[in-house]
Amino acid sequence: MILFKKATDLHNYLDDQRKKHGSIGFVPTMGALHEGHLSLIKKAKEENSVTVCSIFVNPTQFNDPEDFKKYPVTIEKDIYMLESAACEVLYIPDVNEIYPEGVEKNKKYNLGILENILEGKYRPGHFQGVCMVVHRLLDMVRPGQLYLGQKDYQQCMVITKLIELMGKKDSIEIRTCPTQREADGLAMSSRNVRLNEEERKKAGLISKVLTQIKKEIFGGNIEAPKKNGIQLLQNDGFNVDYLEIADAETLEPLTNWDGRQKLVVLCAATIGKVRLIDNMLIN
């Protein structure tokens, strides 16, 4: 594996690889890697000649400065995991490489409804920060395929919109890969390491609630399964930001279902001081 810290060096190397081999797959991360990330690396390697992973904890997407400070950094372990997975290229830039003109959010991305619902509502400015860093990384790497995890469902939709706004819809294909889970159903996440023993035991309830909603939902009014799910989480000590059933393609929240429309149920809930998100496609 070759490690780069400078955008110019990475860009030049990938230009050469693109001419020699063709396809480049890209997995952007914020580090603290786990098996979920490695599943993206594996998929990228299956489908491309060269796989690039980036590690950069992006300050512009944290609306809570304390959350940014507490984000786990495990760079030595991350490098070992990527080498074991036979990733070809790792890019670890510093803030000045990504934001040479500073981190002020001086560019506005028109994300429509995605900006103001669910994660957008509870983390104002978050998706603008995501777009800033992904835009910059895509300009550096210029991949043919971009690999994202379904756990960040709304973020996947935001990045799809970003690529459209960049005019790269025909040159960058988004590959959304299934959420990887622990044995109790908890969605793998870098934040899970911050859970204490008691919180970790409870955390798997989120996926159980989503699964229960998937089993209970039928055509017509769909409010009852959602309310029951919120109550179950609150009873076990979770602070629920949202538990929403929405159109899988637009994220428009729904109260009634025709039985055919593709749905996704999404949740964000905090246990202790750790905020967890998850989702599940219903049909």
CATH class of the largest domain equals Alpha Beta
Q: What's the total number of strands?
A: 11
Contiguous uncertain segments of 5+ residues: none
Mean pLDDT: 96
Class from secondary-structure proportions: alpha/beta
State the strand order across the main sheet: 1-4-3-2-5-6
End-to-end CA span = 40 Å
Which value, in Å, is the CA radius of gyration? 19 Å
Order of helices and strands: EHEHEHHEHHHEHEHHEHEEEE
Q: Examine the coordinates and then state which fold CATH places here, giving the name of the CATH topology of the largest domain.
A: Rossmann fold
Percent of residues in beta strands: 15-25%
What is the CATH superfamily classification of the largest domain? Answer: HUPs
- Return the domain count: 2
Apparent shape: globular
Secondary-structure arrangement, i.e. CATH architecture of the largest domain: 3-Layer(aba) Sandwich
Q: What kind of sheet is the major sheet?
A: 6 strands, parallel
